[in-house]
Structures are given as C-alpha cells and as structure tokens.
Design a protein that fits this description.
By secondary structure, the chain is mainly α. It contains three helices and no strands. Helices cover 64% and strands 0% of the residues. The longest helix is centred in the middle third of the chain and has 26 residues. It is rod-shaped. The relative contact order is 0.07.
Length: 107
C-alpha cells in the first residue's frame, strides 16, 4: 500500500515541478497542485485504509488493560475464609441492656 502512496506522491511532485517550470505556470499553482492532487487525497486514502488496523490495535490494547485490571482485582480480593465477616456463629450485635426501654410510637 505504501508503495502506491510513494509512487503517487512522486507523480504529483513531477506535476508540480512541471507547473512551476512552465512559462504560464506559477509556484503558487505548483503548491496548490501538490496539496490538492497529492497530500490531501493520499492522507485521506491512507487514513481510510488503516482503519481496520487501528481497530485491531485498539481492541488489543483494551484486552491487555482488561487483563491487567482483572489481575489487579484478583490480587486485592480477600481469601475465601475471611469473605464473610460474621461467619463465626456469634450474634451480629451486642444484646441491649435491660434498663433501656424500646422506642415506641405513642397512640
């Protein structure tokens, strides 16, 4: 693909040189020819032709980041024994003292 791009830019450069060296041509016309026939279309074609490759690179980068995120999450998780804080069989809270009355709604 890049060989075609290089060849087309060479042809356009020769067109620009011919434009500049012609008796009725100008250097400004040569610059416009080079940009409008050469750089802009080639940049567009190269951008469009690289789209699948860019998508693959983005997916590969996201896969590596996801794998690193999963590995970091696996390292920070607690072991299965301490996953449940109240697994000891004891009451979850302390018993209330007998001297404190329950709060009720008044009729």
């Amino acid at each position: 693909m890049y060989l075609v791009v290089i060849g087309w830019l060479y042809v356009v450069m020769m067109m620009a040189v011919a434009e500049a060296s012609n008796t009725t041509g100008t250097v400004l016309g040569a610059i416009v020819t080079f940009f409008l026939y050469g750089l802009l279309p080639v940049a567009l074609v190269v951008y469009l032709m690289r789209t699948p490759q860019r998508r693959k690179e983005i997916k590969a980068r996201e896969a590596v980041e996801d794998q690193a995120r999963r590995a970091a999450a696996a390292e920070t998780t607690t072991p299965p024994d301490s996953a449940q804080p109240d697994a000891g069989g004891h009451a979850a809270g302390a018993a209330q003292a007998d001297g404190i009355a329950a709060v009720r709604k008044e009729p």
